[in-house]
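hiii so um. not sure if this is the right channel but i have a protein structure encoded as tokens and i wanna go backwards to a sequence. like what aa goes where. can anyone help
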């Protein structure tokens, strides 16, 4: 067929036009960082549409768009930007991690770090993910200046103590307020077996986006009466515009105790006991007991040599699996997640199994109105053991004689041991705790006019806990044919918040942010328990199996807060910063004359680097001075401390009431006044340094003041007393190396703290407990003990320093072997005075390596179990290995007195059992490898990373006890002792391997 030239030319012209049109329908480009390094996996969205793409391994992208369109470019740890589309464009992203552009959650809003005048510490999901711990708080250790985090001991449900800038109270609560997506979380310890549970076990790290700790008064005052101990704001993950993402993470770990004490073996034990008997001329009694403990075996030649510690502490295992789905478009954003944790604890019979789920959805109904809902659910099942002060707890088995069998030939527990054999409890009892938690938030945001919006949030937190303690007929101390004790507690907290936010920039220099609103908070708790006895056999483990329900209790309590709050932030030209906030709180907890309190705060900052004389400085790239002042409250004084109370007192089946507590209509919250001064410095855009000095004065401490017996009550609660915490915080972040293939960042934080008593009730009368004291001018809860002076080389007697006053007023430092002649002294501090954390993060091509060291100095631990386990055979408890260094002959120089059976030679409360707990610990270490993007893309994945990680890998310490972080767990409000080790389980050392896959 003949083709005409003009037709051919028209065809070519149309073809080129179509090709041109097709090319105009796409935009290509590349995304890089400040160093020109390509960034793979960056999300790019055509604004206002669902069109999106991601950069490839070399940072290149192609998207259906045309020149002039707006592209939204986002990536984790980088600032999200909007840019105009053009062909072959290059987009540069600025990293926000540890940078001034980072946005922090400040309560009822957010604020960039650059404009911040407060002191807020932050960690993100990147900092805590893939750390194999069962509780969220432990993942934060060593990463936050001014924040001390201590797990009570190595039990999987172990309570957590967090102190923000030292102790802010003596007798009221000392834990911070936890706020999850605007919901004040219930954090009540509802354990009924003596040792605490940690309610925040119900949260899974996989759903957390960031954690911001409000440390100073300027940041925490927006929470008023509940901010004195600091505020921990937890933000869960949300969906983002762009391509949907599906992530799976799985890890498997193995655990062991960080440290085990060394105990005498059978031969050493027998030799020590025989020597102790001979030294008091009572060898016959000792050997009679050894015959009983050995139960017919050859104890003289070590036939039985039981290592009770190895039975009590076992190898633990951890399984973590979680998934998440997230994504969205311009109108709707979603995040769904689920997680499973199964932890076999290092303490025998102690396990945790937890499932969690979360759904966060928001929808833009119109250009002016957005609504959404966050819902979280969790169920935690804990198999528990008794508290540290119970003979049937595993760790107290170390007191058993090594010549005693753990089990008999038929496998049953040996009932003829020195103390009750905990294996009887293992085989014939169970203690199961189930915690169920639902957190929910429904919110709406209405844009009224340009810059002004209104938020209305309804939040709800429901924590239910059941505990079932079953004892079979062969359980220790069982007087009936079995018993079951069951408890149920339901706690709910709901908050209704309404607030306006106004954001406006005037004349391009004046930036104003104003928040004003009100809040209503209602809390309710209902508790019930019942006890049943006389069971037909051990197959029945619930209350209805018993023949007699012999006891039951029940109570219900609630309280309410009503609040108004406001905050104003103003900045001029990005260099002069000012903030003021105020909250008025009213609470039903306080006396009717003191129901309301006002909590103001002010702060200011000067960004000197924005001034003309520094603005172009290439070395000193950032410099800000800041200061703050404010007042806060501590409302954790109980629900009825101000009330006049009566209690039921039946007699002979007749009801009656007894006067129980005197009321105080003027009782109110403890008040804390805080001051903070700081400086932030940046060098070469590579180094940032922050230094702060803080002082926290708490007035109106809650104390029980004694009353005359004629009043009918023993005490009345009053606000009397003052304490002060002060210290310095330093944070240094450095970008050591930044090349296309290799990056190395370092973060160091250092904190000092002193928390001292300034005044006390009853004319500053000392408040003394078993071995601690609160005394004006001394550290809070200082150790108060007789001073141990070692051993008399001539006769092996334990010696003590008299520390009595001479007639001239001087102190008698001579020694005596009569304990009653010695006086107690302030001997140590249970709280560290210096804390530090060091984190290094390195990446090389597909490899990543991170580790964190944490250290504490200045604190001491009192081992109150030393009175039994380090006494050179004062009785038949097995002894620590150091008792082999006992005095035996005149002239021996040692710190261990002569072994004397029942001789009480140095076994009294003294500094003999007080030890410094200084330590440095390799808290966590992670090594990972991400497969090349080209490889995983072929398998339909966007990324695949495998990793190994470890927790508590190494510990450097001179502490001679179990572990410098192990603490007694049977402490209650009526026994507020701190810094004590008593047969406490050490933390777990965990190694884990895992894989993370994204689609």
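sure thing!! here u go:
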């Amino acid at each position: 067929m003949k083709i005409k030239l003009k037709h051919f030319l028209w065809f070519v012209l149309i073809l080129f036009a179509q090709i041109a049109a097709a090319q105009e329908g796409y935009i290509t480009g590349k995304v890089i960082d400040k160093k020109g390094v390509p960034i793979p996996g960056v999300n790019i969205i055509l604004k206002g549409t669902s069109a999106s793409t991601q950069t490839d391994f070399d940072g290149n992208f192609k998207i259906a768009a045309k020149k002039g369109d707006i592209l939204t470019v986002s990536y984790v740890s980088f600032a999200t930007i909007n840019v105009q589309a053009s062909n072959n464009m290059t987009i540069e992203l600025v990293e926000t991690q540890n940078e001034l552009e980072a946005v922090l959650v400040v309560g009822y809003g957010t604020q960039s770090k650059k404009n911040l005048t407060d002191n807020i510490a932050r960690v993100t999901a990147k900092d805590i993910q893939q750390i194999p711990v069962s509780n969220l708080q432990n993942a934060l250790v060593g990463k936050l200046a001014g924040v001390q985090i201590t797990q009570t001991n190595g039990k999987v449900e172990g309570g957590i103590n967090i102190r923000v800038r030292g102790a802010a109270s003596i007798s009221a609560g000392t834990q911070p307020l936890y706020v999850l997506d605007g919901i004040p979380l219930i954090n009540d310890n509802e354990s009924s077996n003596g040792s605490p549970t940690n309610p925040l076990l119900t949260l899974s790290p996989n759903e957390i986006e960031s954690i911001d700790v409000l440390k100073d008064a300027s940041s925490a005052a927006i929470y008023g009466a509940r901010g004195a101990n600091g505020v921990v704001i937890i933000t869960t993950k949300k969906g983002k515009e762009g391509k949907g993402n599906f992530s799976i993470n799985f890890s498997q770990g193995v655990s062991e105790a960080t440290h085990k004490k060394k105990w005498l073996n059978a031969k050493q034990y027998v030799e020590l006991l025989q020597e102790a008997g001979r030294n008091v001329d009572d060898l016959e009694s000792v050997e009679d007991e050894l015959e009983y403990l050995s139960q017919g075996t050859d104890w003289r030649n070590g036939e039985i040599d039981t290592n009770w510690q190895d039975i009590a502490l076992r190898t633990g295992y951890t399984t973590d699996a979680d998934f998440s789905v997230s994504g969205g478009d311009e109108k709707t954003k979603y995040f769904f997640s689920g997680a499973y944790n199964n932890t076999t604890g290092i303490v025998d019979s102690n396990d945790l199994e937890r499932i969690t789920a979360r759904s966060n959805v928001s929808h833009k109904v119109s250009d002016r109105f957005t609504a959404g809902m966050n819902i979280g659910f969790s169920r935690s099942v804990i198999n528990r053991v008794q508290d540290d002060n119970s003979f049937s707890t595993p760790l107290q088995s170390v007191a058993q004689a090594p010549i005693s069998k753990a089990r008999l030939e038929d496998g049953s527990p040996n009932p003829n041991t020195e103390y009750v054999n905990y294996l009887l409890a293992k085989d014939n009892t169970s203690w199961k705790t189930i915690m169920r938690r639902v957190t929910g938030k429904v919110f709406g945001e209405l844009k009224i006019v340009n810059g002004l919006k209104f938020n209305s949030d309804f939040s709800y937190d429901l924590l239910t806990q059941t505990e079932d303690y079953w004892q079979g007929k062969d359980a220790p101390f069982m007087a009936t044919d079995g018993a079951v004790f069951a408890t149920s507690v339901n706690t709910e907290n709901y908050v209704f918040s309404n607030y306006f936010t106004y954001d406006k920039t005037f004349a391009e220099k004046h930036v104003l942010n104003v928040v004003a609103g009100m809040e209503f908070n209602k809390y309710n708790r209902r508790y019930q328990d019942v006890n049943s006895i006389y069971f037909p056999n051990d197959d029945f483990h619930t209350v209805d199996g018993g023949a007699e329900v012999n006891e039951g209790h029940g109570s219900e309590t609630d309280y309410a807060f009503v609040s108004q709050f406001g905050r104003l932030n103003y900045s001029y030209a990005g260099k002069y910063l000012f903030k003021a906030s105020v909250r008025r709180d009213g609470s039903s907890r306080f006396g009717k004359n003191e129901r309301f309190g006002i909590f103001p705060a002010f702060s200011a900052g000067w960004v000197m680097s924005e001034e003309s004389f520094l603005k172009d400085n290439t070395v000193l790239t950032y410099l800000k001075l800041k200061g703050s002042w404010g007042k806060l409250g501590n409302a954790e004084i109980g629900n009825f401390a101000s009330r006049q109370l009566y209690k039921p007192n039946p007699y002979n089946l007749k009801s009656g009431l007894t006067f129980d507590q005197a009321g105080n209509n003027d009782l109110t919250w403890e008040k804390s006044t805080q001051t903070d001064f700081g400086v932030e410095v940046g060098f070469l855009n590579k180094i940032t340094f922050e230094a702060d000095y803080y002082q926290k004065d708490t007035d109106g401490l809650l104390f029980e003041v004694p009353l005359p017996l004629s009043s009918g009550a023993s005490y009345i609660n009053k606000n009397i007393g003052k304490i002060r915490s002060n210290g310095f915080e330093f944070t240094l972040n450095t970008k050591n190396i930044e090349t296309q293939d290799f990056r190395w960042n370092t973060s160091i934080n250092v904190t000092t703290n002193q928390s001292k008593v300034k005044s006390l009730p009853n004319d500053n009368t000392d408040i003394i407990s078993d071995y601690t004291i609160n005394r004006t001018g001394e550290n809070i809860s200082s150790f108060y003990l007789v001073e141990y002076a070692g051993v008399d080389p001539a006769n092996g007697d334990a010696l003590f320093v008299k520390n009595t006053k001479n007639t001239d007023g001087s102190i008698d430092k001579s020694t005596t072997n009569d304990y009653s002649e010695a006086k107690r002294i302030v001997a140590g501090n249970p709280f560290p005075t210096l804390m530090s954390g060091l984190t290094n993060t390195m990446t090389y091509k597909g490899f990543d390596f991170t580790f964190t060291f944490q250290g504490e100095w200045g604190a001491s631990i009192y081992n109150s179990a030393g009175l039994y386990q380090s006494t050179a055979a004062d009785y038949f408890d097995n002894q620590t290995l150091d008792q082999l260094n006992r005095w035996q002959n005149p002239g021996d120089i040692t710190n261990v007195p002569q072994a004397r059976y029942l001789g009480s030679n140095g076994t009294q409360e003294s500094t003999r059992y007080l030890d410094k707990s200084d330590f440095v610990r390799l808290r966590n270490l992670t090594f990972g490898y991400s497969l090349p993007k080209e490889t995983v893309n072929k398998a339909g994945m966007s990324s695949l990373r495998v990793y190994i990680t470890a927790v508590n890998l190494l510990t450097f310490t001179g502490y001679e006890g179990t572990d410098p972080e192990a603490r007694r767990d049977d402490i209650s409000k009526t026994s507020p002792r701190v810094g004590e080790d008593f047969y406490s389980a050490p933390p777990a050392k965990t190694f884990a391997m895992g894989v993370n896959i994204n689609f």
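oh and DSSP finds ten helices and 55 strands in the chain.
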